[in-house]
Predict the structure.
Amino acid sequence: MSHTAHIRSHRKPRRSASTIAMRAGVAGGVLGTLAVAGASGSANAAEPVAQTLELPTLTSDVAAQVARSADATQQAAANYELQAERDAAAANAAKQAKADLAEARKKAAQARKKAEEAARKEAAARASRTAERTAPATTTSTGTGSSAGTSAGTTVSTSTSTATGSAAAIVSFVEAQVGKAYVSGATGPSAYDCSGLVQSAFRQVGVSLPRVSQDQSVAGTQVSLGNLQPGDILYWGGAGSAYHVAVYVGDGMFVGAQNPSTGVVERPLSYDPPSGAVRVL
């Protein structure tokens, strides 16, 4: 025993039961807290496992979104491609339309040029016919017969010989038609055109003539205008290309279906000197 053991103040105080119980309670509380913390830590440590289990769900959603994005991208690309095709088609159509328009304009210009050329030729021919019809007679003679010259200086006979036979029948027929109407394409009996009157007149004596002036001007024997006889066919224009015909009736006169304004008339040769004559009878 220590030499100070008998001194009361130097003795270590004994632990009381309450103190020991309190300390045990504190220790138990600490241990309980640690146990709770450990359990909590274990629970927290298990949370990543729970998150790992949810990852497949999250990955599936992302995949669906990626797929939808890919579909949208593909659709947009298809739309762009379709628009590009439409733009190319529109450009080609516009190019073709431009080419077609240029071709149409070219053809229209050619047609217009041809029409103008035809109009010029027709005007020139009409002027030539007018000059021939209005040319004054250059010579006149008297006697048993008389003659009138054309603008070209050709002498036109105006014999007073009387028609006989078939020629007389032709002369009588055409003179009977004087005053009737001129109608293009008509061959009687109420209206005629120039070649229709001549054809109808020769039909009276059993002679069949061609229908048009061009053919009638070469239907017989060509005779000079200085040797005309009643019943001869007079023509205006060239032989084979005549544009007008009439019948010489003697005494320097002819009967013809002239035009719509005059109809069938009897006129002197000087009124419209013919270009030539043909004898059928």
